[in-house]
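Section 3.1 - Work completed
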Amino acid sequence: MRYDLVVFDNDGVLVDSEPLSNTILAGYLTELGHPTSYEDSLRDYMGGAVHRIHDLVLERSGRRLPAEFDEEFHGRVFEAFRRELEPVRGVVDVLTELRAAGVPYCVASSGRH
């Protein structure tokens, strides 16, 4: 069977960024005075939008996160991605085979560019 196009999701298919981003989130929240373990971060925030972090912190502590939270958090995450993020095992081979077969592929994601 020949495919006209293969569309990949990014997280969990091409890369698995959740362990890295949740480690950073837990550390940053703890640094800001909101003690959070890696397990807490996975349970409470994984897969959610950043406004969920703001909402839960406010609900639980009565305090707002700093105005620069989003920018600082994303900066830390993207720097860690540049240094440490690896492709999911086997995906490089899949992409190589698709390219060799002339099958176009792309990524569909709700994440920002």
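Second construct:
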Amino acid sequence: MKRHTLAVGIEFIGTRYRGWQRQEEVVGVQAVIEKALSTIANEPIELIAAGRTDAGVHAGNMIAHFTTTAERTAYSWLRGANSMLPDDIALRWLTPMPEHFHARFSAIARRYRYITLNQPYRPAILRHQVTHEFAPLDIEQMIAASRLLVGTHDFSSFRAAACQSNQPVRTVSHADLFRHGSYLVLDIQADGFLHHMVRNIMGALFAIGRHEMSIADLSTLMAARDRKLAPPTAAADGLYFINAYYPDEFQSLLPDIPLTPLWLNLPA
């Protein structure tokens, strides 16, 4: 029987999960979706994603793929899976792809947004969906510091001890930090990310915003390539995987959808 390659866009709130990856003793997002898709396909489904999110991290358009011999319409896949998934996970879209498409290895860039609510009182409605900073922050200094991240650098100072990547050099194509009402948004895109890289970067930017570090200190920290010298890791609550990008032969086949979090109403 012919096998089909299907790409799917996934939205989830990661608060209740120990990250994306399937694990033996704890619940990961991957395993929950695979169970639903396997039921629809009436065969085991293995889902491969563009990235691996940490425990508590969210996604608005995590791109993944799977192969199957099952003949189903996109409507059947989506309606069927979403009817079985918990209310904090949903499939946004599904589309057939060439058999050589690979959600992880074909990707040329990945993009995250880190959302901070900077106000005196803690949020209730957006609890666990933003990181809360109650004290005033020096946003201009944080913005100036974020510009140092753009380009090709060794990000060892922002790499978790458990990171399994073969090397720490990454190319950041943009790192746009801006205020949006009471929110502070870091929109960052790179060819790849190290374990905890975005959260460790935000930890340093928060330290600069509180005047615990200077912009020059950030340059020194990057050059030191030593995680032990860096400020604490920022919370997972505010981090969203928002998209992955591919060569034109694949990107042209994927839907162009609004980027999350949708409640912020940010430009693409």
